[in-house]
Write a structure and sequence with these properties.
Largest sheet: 2 strands, antiparallel
Radius of gyration: 17 Å
Order of helices and strands: HHHHEEHH
Number of helices: 6
Shape: elongated
Oligomer: single chain
Strand content: under 5%
Number of strands: 2
Helix content: 55-70%
């Protein structure tokens, strides 16, 4: 047995492909956020998407009969991260709700990639880019956040 056979598990290519998908999704979603001057951009979204993908991927490999346990923990953990982003200003205005929601949604997106649900993750990526633009479409008068 060679040194490489000892350190490789056989799952590296699948992980690398998922990591590339995370990079694509985080760039698309993070660029949309950055283009509108929001706090969480490409790097933040990459770490959240890739981190949740890694947890989902590893949990599926460790216990294929029960990967939902880790997914539930991702939801909880990222919820706390999002809660730390939300601020209440002195004038009483609450800010960063959409940024916190995008972080939470990014974790869900990463989880779908980790489980190998590529079409779902592509649809989620498109959703994450399109929906924040709705209130800013010409002729539409949605209440601002």
């Amino acid at each position: 047995m060679t040194m490489f056979e000892k350190i490789l598990s056989g799952h590296e290519l699948g992980y690398f492909i998922r990591l590339l998908l995370c990079l694509f999704a985080s760039f698309v979603v993070g660029f949309e956020r950055t283009s509108r001057g929001k706090a969480a951009g490409v790097s933040t979204h990459f770490f959240v998407i890739a981190g949740s993908m890694t947890f989902a991927f590893a949990s599926f490999l460790a216990d294929p009969s029960s990967p939902a346990r880790i997914a539930a923990q991702i939801v909880t953990g990222v919820g706390f991260l999002g809660a730390g982003i939300i601020l209440k200003r002195e004038e009483g205005k609450i800010v960063n709700l959409t940024t916190a929601a995008s972080i939470w949604f990014a974790a869900a997106l990463g989880t779908t990639i980790g489980f190998g649900w590529y079409v779902v993750s592509l649809l989620a990526t498109l959703f994450a880019v399109f929906v924040p633009r709705l209130p800013h479409m010409p002729g539409k008068h949605y209440p601002q956040e």
